[in-house]
């Protein structure tokens, strides 16, 4: 894995990304040396920077830096992690200086065909000031994923404080209910995933009815199909949730094929 910064590194231990987790990041997929939907990632990165009072990085410099690395990697699929740090500054003032742009690129395998999920014992706070921000402070998700591993599952689904589906630890959640593709609305506390947005558009183009709404956990468990979406994995069918299996995957498979096909045209 190659890791580098676009700026001269100095005083790293004073950077608030390292001292307090103040920063934002993006995880992008590259297929055959090409970034997938970089404009959506930069749009979200910029929104996150603005929410946290940080200056966004220069997109053109990032792309110019990434392209030769992807070419030299020569991998069918790669993961590109982009982090913008909070820089140096006061603990009680979001405004800072000397932020860093950190990049990491590594080859990755094909995504799994299916995953088993469990319900998180901890809720997502949809009212948090960090709701919807892909924040560098990721310890909550790491604790959740450690819980998943110990439970012998692949992922978990967070309820929010109202008992509705929010998101998975590393993905957005979709349910298929009576032919309608349903996903939690952004006010449920979920991340505005780039793959989520692409799948909503793909489903609409396929003539499927799509609804963004509150989705109670109890109703989601009884869905006909369930699937997760993320930038690096695309569409992944959920085979079981807390031991309850999902036999149907017809809509999920249509969307998975459409998503995978769209990668060829990037």
TrEMBL record:
It catalyses: L-valine + 2-oxoglutarate = 3-methyl-2-oxobutanoate + L-glutamate; L-isoleucine + 2-oxoglutarate = (S)-3-methyl-2-oxopentanoate + L-glutamate; L-leucine + 2-oxoglutarate = 4-methyl-2-oxopentanoate + L-glutamate. SUPFAM superfamilies: D-aminoacid aminotransferase-like PLP-dependent enzymes. The keyword Lyase applies. Gene3D superfamilies: 3.30.470.10, D-amino Acid Aminotransferase, subunit A, domain 2 (3.20.10.10). Pfam families: Aminotran_4. GO terms for molecular function: lyase activity. Transmembrane segments: none annotated. Belongs to the class-IV pyridoxal-phosphate-dependent aminotransferase family. This is branched-chain-amino-acid transaminase. It comes from Haloferula helveola.
């Amino acid at each position: 894995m190659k890791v580098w910064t676009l700026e001269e590194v100095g005083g790293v231990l004073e950077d608030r990304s390292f001292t307090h987790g103040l920063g934002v990041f993006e995880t992008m997929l590259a297929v055959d040396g090409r970034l997938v939907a970089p404009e959506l990632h930069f749009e979200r990165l910029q929104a996150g920077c603005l929410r946290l009072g940080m200056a966004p990085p220069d997109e053109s410099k990032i792309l110019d830096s990434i392209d030769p690395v992807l070419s030299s990697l020569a991998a069918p699929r790669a993961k590109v992690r982009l982090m913008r740090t909070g820089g140096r500054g006061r603990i009680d003032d979001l405004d800072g200086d000397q932020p860093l742009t950190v990049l990491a690129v590594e080859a990755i395998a094909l995504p799994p065909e299916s995953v088993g999920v469990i319900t998180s014992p901890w809720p997502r706070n949809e009212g948090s000031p960090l709701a919807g921000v892909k924040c560098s402070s990721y310890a909550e998700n790491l604790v959740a994923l450690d819980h998943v591993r110990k439970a012998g599952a692949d992922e978990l689904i967070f309820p929010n404080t109202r008992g509705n589906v929010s998101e998975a630890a590393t993905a957005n959640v979709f349910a298929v209910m009576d032919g309608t593709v349903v996903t939690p609305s952004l006010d449920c506390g979920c991340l505005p995933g780039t793959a989520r947005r692409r799948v909503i558009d793909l489903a609409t183009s396929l003539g499927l009815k799509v609804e963004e709404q509150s989705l109670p956990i109890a109703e989601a468990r009884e869905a006909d199909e369930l699937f997760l979406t993320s930038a690096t994995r695309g569409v992944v069918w959920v085979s079981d949730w807390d031991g309850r299996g999902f036999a149907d995957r017809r809509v999920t498979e249509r969307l998975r094929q459409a998503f995978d096909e769209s990668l060829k045209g990037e």
